[in-house]
Amino acid sequence: MEESPVGVRHSANILDLKEWVNPLHGYHYDSMNPDGLACWVAKYAADPQHVVMPPYRVLVIPQDAKVSRETWQRIDTLKRNGITVITEPYRADTLPGLPPDAVLPEGIAFAHRKDHSTHYFFLSNQTDREQSFQAKLRTHYVTALINPVTGELLDFRQHREGVYGCVDITLPPYGSVIAASGLMFLDAPTVSQQPDAAIPIGENLRWEVSFAENQEQVSTRQLFDWSQSKNDRIRYYSGRARYSTTFHVKQKDMERLTWLQLPGVKDVAHVWLNGHDLGTVWTAPYMVPLQKHLRKGKNTLEIDVVNTWHNALRGADQGKAPYDGIWTNARYRTKGDELLPAGLLQTPLLVRDRQTFLKALENALNK
Fold first, then answer.
1. Across the beta sheet with 158-161, what order do the strands follow?
2. In the prediction, which pLDDT does 51 show?
3. Could you say which DSSP state residue 340 is in?
4. Burial code of 61-74, b = ≥16 C-beta within 10 A, e = fewer?
């Protein structure tokens, strides 16, 4: 028996979206109504080489769909031009004469788009664990792996296997990457998919925490989960809180440190270093580039952390709202009374990037 939303139970004809991460076993697809089909048929006739229009090869007609005579005439036109039309239940995992766009492990979602001569595959880890896998992508060769958050090009290994370019990829929990094939990416500089090392910004640092919505203040040397606080105005807090601290960096580390990582943030963070805006992180690996704003000696770090509304709404339901003005037009229902982890839970890390280190070493040797 499915329960969705909380408190509502049902079973008939209900699909669990978790089962739709890769529903067509590696085939990319688009849905369209009769008007969209008519538009595509007209443009297909004007663009037989698929320079602009997507090169669809198969059309699936939903069971019991009401299809007009005019639409069937358009479908017949597609059949005469070599498009496979499926009108009956199809139970095989692959289509005859058309290999899947991508062969991926369970939990990896994808989208495939083509822009003129360049193919783009967006791969997304939909699980809460790191995944290392071989992605088989239906393209001649993959010429770039792109970090969609930073725009960096990542290094990778690949080989050919039939119609597929096979690439070794590692994705953090809920992380993503873009695999591209295009001449524009050839010989472009790359960085490692995984940075070499990371070090805490310091030990036993003093953190000043200011909660914006209710003006609570905390001074602590131990980062903590708001939902575990004995103070209900923090325990049930939802909103923005600013963390401030200072740390020191030695001159010998300056050339190698290129990223700041927040390995334990719930849920979104905005980062400033020495008054410079480093950007916002909301997804793994929760890293922002230092952008040459790291200084020898003393550095000032400020982080705004924002969590979801869950904890405040749970508190309001129990008469323990963390501040005034919290309300809903219906009772906020959750499965159980547990609160969600919130805040900055671990000390930020300074990340050493191998490519940056090797470049600095090369420059030193050439002097």
1. 102-103, 131-137, 164-171, 158-161
2. 45
3. P
4. eeeeeeeeeebeeb
The CATH number linked to 124 is: 2.60.40.1180
Same domain, yes or no: 37 and 111? no
Place of tokens 């109504």: 33
Show the beta-strand stretches assigned E in 23-130: 58-60, 84-86, 102-103, 108-115, 118-125
Polymer length of the chain: 367
Count of the separate structural domains present in the chain = 3
Distance CA 246, CA 273 (A): 10
What does pLDDT average to in each consecutive run of 10 residues of the chain (367 residues)? 64 64 86 81 64 69 82 83 84 86 94 84 92 92 84 84 92 90 60 67 95 97 96 97 96 79 93 96 85 91 97 92 90 82 95 55 45
Q: Which residue has the tokens 């410079």?
A: 276
Q: Where are the alpha helices (DSSP H) in the chain?
A: 34-46, 69-80, 232-235, 310-317, 354-366
From 103, 65, 55, select the one nearest 87 (Cα to Cα): 65
**The domain containing residue 347 runs over which residues?**
197-366
Q: Omega before 285 cis (within 30°)?
A: yes
